Amino acid sequence: MPVSPTDPFRTRHITIRNNEVTQTNVVTDYNDTITNSFGEPGGVGEAITVANSVQHVYVYGNNVHNSRQYGIDFKNHVVDGEIHGNRIDRVIRYGIYLDAGETDIRRISVKDNVVTHCRAGIVLSREEDDDDSGDGLVFEDIDIDNNTLAHLSRIGIHFQRHPSKDQQDIGHIRRIRARLNTLYNTNTDGFYRDLNIDDWATFGTNLAGQPIVDGIELRGNIAWNPDGDMWMRANVADDARFTVVDNFNVADGQTTGIDPLFKDPLKGDFSLQTGSPADPVIRKVRLLLTSA
User: How far apart are CA 269 and CA 70, in angstroms?
Assistant: First the structure.
């Protein structure tokens, strides 16, 4: 069926399920001069990308591995979607990336994914290039639940204010919730962050005089590095736009954490042992969410 010129979406009802995706940056005559951030040729294409006016998209159960740019990427006007139950391993940059671009990302669920041996686990950002003129740049109603992020070189979860492409105070970032995620050994380089959300605290008010950021929540997340040291940027304790409660080893600054006693993390078993000090916190949050 043809799409109306006034329809806000060009594509609807897409399912990407049970695929194996790998080596998506093979060098060819076309991309041999297009380099990634390491200066390597082969282009900067993502493994699975959904972009540009898409509604109702479901990415389930895919195995993405040994590639270079991003594993799964939603960007530029993607609304009503799910990224569930995927495995992403050895993708050099980001495992999962949500990028509002110059438009919007709305009502997306990122759940039950396993991201390992990447630079970053899950990143939310707006690459708007500073040429957007209004408050239509929107990031809202995002749920990041029960993901496992392990053996990452730089960061587990990053709510990023892009350092060169998101410097205007425009639009909205609201109702972003990260709950019950596991971060294990997520800063192996040792000088980045296991978790960073306070980039977003730097936003002020938009053109309409409204707060850009509102309703950002971290609840029930567990972080642990084998050496016991975590390095967080979550300096939002007195900021009403943020709720950071009932987490385990998630605190601002560099902290010496308490071992949550995973059963066998080196073999990928991040369930909690009997007597885990994290168990009461996680039970409390699960009860809260199921009774809500």
Answer: 25
